[in-house]
Amino acid sequence: MHPLKVGIREFRTHLPKYLLQTDQPIAVTRHGSTIGYFVPSINTSQEHDLRALQQAVEQLNICLQNAKVDEETLVQDFKMLRQNHES
User: What torsion, rounded to 10 degrees, do the Cα atoms 46, 49, 53, 59 define?
Assistant: First the structure.
């Protein structure tokens, strides 16, 4: 995989994007010459968020089972409440 070439000013300006959203190496350049490389590590934040979402889904399913409510009923109730709120 070839690194993405980014000027030093752009790299500095958009640093949060490159630190948190990029999974490919970046060649940081100055006046067209590469002065360094940024090699991101595995983005564990997204993995953590995905695990948290999966746990929330599991907990919701348990609550629905305990209340003896199926997903279709939940969706219908939500739509009805939303319509009432918009009126």
Answer: 150
- In the predicted model, residues of the chain with pLDDT beneath 70 are 1, 42-45
Which residues are paired to 38 by β-bridges?
A: 26
Q: Could you report the per-residue pLDDT of 49-58, keeping only the tens digit for each?
A: 888 889 988 8
C-alpha to C-alpha distances, 32 to 5, 27, 29, 61, nearest whole angstrom? 9, 10, 6, 55
Q: How far is the C-alpha of 65 from the C-alpha of 58, rounded, in Å?
A: 11
Record the pTM. Answer: 0.47
